[in-house]
Design goal:
This protein is an alpha+beta fold. It has helices at residues 10-19, 29-39, 68-79, 128-131, 274-287, 304-310, 328-332, 354-359; strands spanning 6-9, 63-66, 83-89, 93-96, 102-107, 110-117, 123-126, 136-140, 146-155, 160-165, 186-191, 200-214, 220-227, 239-242, 247-254, 269-273, 293-294, 297-302, 317-323, 339-343, 346-347, 366-373, 376-383, 385-386. The protein is built from 8 helices and 24 strands. The longest helix is centred in the C-terminal third of the chain and has 14 residues, at 274-287.
């Protein structure tokens, strides 16, 4: 069957659009409206009326002709030249023999990911985890040319890094407005899965927006775009693109299961929303880091299970293990052993981790803290400071 021209009856648009797809066909109605609205194509061709009964008053079914492949091809042609493979050469490591004894030789391991050129000044966006622990960074263009890259800055929490390259650029991609995305909208992922298959293109839809993923560092990655476009190891840092050829996300992770069962999931990819990427990368370019508020405490998350096991008075919150001398928390009167249950009007619970709640405030802002101490509930006020640079 040829998919060059996709024929959809008006009666089918709602049904197919609601069911989604995997692969190159973007769920009927969703693709048609995305193509029409974003690319402003001429009105679809309507076939000759098909009589459904002997009555001349019966409204005929209409057949819409939508060239989906052309829309995808045009978007890829715009963005793909700006997509690069990022090569991370790690520090040399000593080799050991079968018994674990050093051999006197070293190896120089490499890791790889993807990235996208977003500025005529040579700035490249990728993931922080792609460049972590590097000793040397390079980017490889689509034509195979390799150039050295310099790390401008990175942010662990957003998983964003900005690189800088010099010399002629093959292309520059532009950002789109990720806030305007709708579930069912067709999107394209471009990257270098496994580091070998440069500029691989996969197609899917926006499965959801505003998603949150828990991390092992006690915070949530927020405002993520969920997509069923295939994302594999090496795609990290590559762009998620709309049919207008704009970068609307940076691919960051894929979920295969929940870690607590044998259930395996497919088509659960996530990208950092472009508006978040733009805000973070602008700070990285201007400052080299992202300014975030902090209190100056070390802490442990309290859950109902932790509370039961340790006889704590709060089901949710954070247990304050220590307070930095002279820190904002110290100045506010916070003590080790306190339980922090609320910042401002935000209770700390399953959906409001401590770090994310704190990031909703600004540096220098005075924030009320709800504290449990020795059976009493206290309200303290802290003036948030700026997180020290590592």
């Amino acid at each position: 069957m040829s998919f060059k021209k996709l024929l959809l009856t008006c009666a089918m648009i709602g049904l197919i659009g609601s069911s989604g797809f995997v692969g190159a066909l973007a769920g009927g109605g969703a693709v048609y409206w995305a193509v029409r609205d974003r690319l402003q194509q001429p009105a679809p061709v309507v076939s000759q009326p098909i009589s459904t009964s002997a009555s001349s008053e019966t409204t005929p079914a209409q057949i819409l002709h939508v060239d989906v492949n052309s829309a995808v091809e045009d978007a890829v042609a715009r963005v793909s030249p700006a997509v690069v493979t990022v090569i991370n050469t790690l520090p040399a490591q000593a080799q050991t023999d079968f018994f674990g004894f050093p051999t006197g030789q070293t190896t120089t391991p490499q890791a790889s990911g993807s990235g996208v050129i977003v500025s005529k000044d040579g700035y490249v966006i990728t993931n922080q985890h792609v460049v972590q622990g590097y000793s040397k960074l390079e980017v490889v263009f689509r034509d195979g040319q390799t150039v050295e890259a310099k790390l401008v800055g990175s942010d662990d929490y957003a998983d964003i890094a900005v690189l800088k390259i010099e010399g002629p650029l093959p292309a520059v991609a532009e950002f789109g407005n990720s806030d305007a995305l709708n579930p069912g909208e067709a999107v394209i992922a471009i990257g270098s899965p496994l580091g070998d298959f440069k500029n691989t293109v996969t197609v899917g839809v926006v499965s959801g927006t505003g998603r949150s993923i828990n991390t092992s560092q006690g915070y949530q990655m927020e405002d993520l775009i969920q997509t069923d476009a295939a994302i594999n190891h090496g795609n990290s840092g590559g762009p998620l693109v709309n049919l207008a050829g704009q970068v609307i996300g940076i691919n960051t992770l894929v979920v295969r299961g929940d870690g607590g069962s044998s259930d395996q999931a497919e088509g659960l990819g996530f990208a950092i929303a472009a508006n978040t990427v733009k805000a973070v990368s602008d700070q990285l370019v201007s400052k080299g880091f992202v300014a975030r508020p902090y209190m100056g405490i070390s802490w442990a998350t309290i859950t109902p299970a932790v509370a039961r096991a340790n006889g704590l008075a709060a089901q949710w919150g954070v247990y304050i293990k220590s307070v930095g001398q002279g820190s904002p928390a110290d100045t506010a009167g916070v003590r080790a052993g306190d339980i922090l249950t609320q910042l401002g009007d935000t209770p700390l619970d399953e959906t409001h981790p401590f770090i994310n709640a704190m990031w909703s405030f600004t540096i220098g802002q005075e924030v009320p803290l709800t504290i449990l101490r020795e059976g009493q509930t206290l309200t303290l006020k802290v003036v948030l400071g700026e997180r020290p640079r590592p």
